[in-house]
Structure formats: structure tokens, C-alpha cells
Amino acid sequence: MSKFKKKKKGLPAISTASLPDIVFMLLFFFMVSTTMRETDLLLKKPVLPTASEVKKLEQKSLVSTIYVGKSKDARISGDKIQVNDKIIDVKDVPSFIFAERALRSEDEVKYMTTSIKADKEANVGTILDIKEQLRDINALKISFSTTKGSSIETNYKN
Questions:
Q1: How confident is the model at residue 138 (pLDDT cuts 50, 70, 90)?
Q2: How many folded domains does the chain comprise?
Q3: Alpha-carbon separation of residue 18 from 6, 75, 120 (angstroms)
Q4: What is the largest CA-CA distance in the chain?
């Protein structure tokens, strides 16, 4: 009889059959859980005023946002206006709205809304100037961003 040699068995290979499933699960998780930031704020984050009657905007894709507030740079005083990723003057607001309208179809233009996110301490004159510029170009759907709460409560706490 001959002797049989024992073959050394190595470690079994790791199965990679479930690897694509794991990769797609991770991909799906990150796609669902991440949010895309539209603009980088060049202003201090606005502290929004409170309001008792708050309504959410329906189609956020048709909203053009104008930020009003103080600059992050302490050397610059006064209220600044930011649209997208740049600081503009009040007189440049119509060109911003026209550029936003150019990106939309003719049917969507009539449903476009201009949202003003103004800091609670922002100058009312600046906001009125923006509203006047919007009125001149017939952008009459204006929304003011607020936080939900009673404005009476905050006034009496001071």
C-alpha cells in the first residue's frame, strides 16, 4: 500500500458575492441622507423673525431666495444683500430675477416666488427697496421667511 500525502489546505477564499449588495446599500443610504446646499452664506446666518401664521412654500424649485443681513466681515457695516453666492446691490435685484426667469420655462415663470430671508435686525428700508425693485419688474409673489412662534411673546420678554 502506498502512503497518501496529506495536502495542506489553505484558508478558504472570502466570498465576494454579497459585496455589490453592500456597496449599493451604502450608496443608497448616502444618497438619501445627504442634502445639497444651494448657496454658501457670505452673510451671518440670519436670525429670522417669528410669526404666528406660517405657511410652507409648495414648490421650492420655483423659489428665488434673497438674503438680507450683516456681513461676516466685521469691518463692513450696514445691511448686505446676497443672491446665490454673491453680494449684490439693491439695483442689481431685477437682473437676478430676470436671470432666474431665464432658467425656467414660460409656464413656470408665472408661479415663481421671491423669498426674502431677512435678519430680524435688518433695516426695513433695505427690505422696502428690494420690494420696490421687485414691484418695478412685476415680480409680485413675495414670501418672507420666518420661524413659527408668537411675535407677541418675544416682544414682552425683552
A1: very high
A2: 1
A3: 33, 57, 53
A4: 107
Is residue 44 situated within a structural domain? no
pTM of the model: 0.71
pLDDT digits (tens, 9 = 90+) for 84-133: 889 999 999 999 999 999 999 999 999 999 999 999 999 999 999 999 99
pLDDT value, residue 13? 78
Contact in structure between 139 and 114 (CB atoms under 8 Å): yes
CATH assignment of the domain containing 98: 3.30.420.270
Q: Tell which phi-psi region holds residue 105, choosing left (phi > 0), alpha (psi between -120 and 50) or beta.
A: beta
- Residue type at 102 in one-letter notation: A
Phi, psi dihedral angles at 4 (to 5 degrees): -90, 135
Q: Are 108 and 62 in contact (CB under 8 A)?
A: yes
Range of the domain at 54: 50-151
Going by their DSSP bridges, the two strands 79-83 and 63-70 should be labelled as antiparallel
Query: Which of the 8 DSSP states describes residue 71?
Result: B
* Residue 137 neighbours by CB under 8 Å, 6+ apart: 94, 97, 98
Is residue 36 in a domain?
no
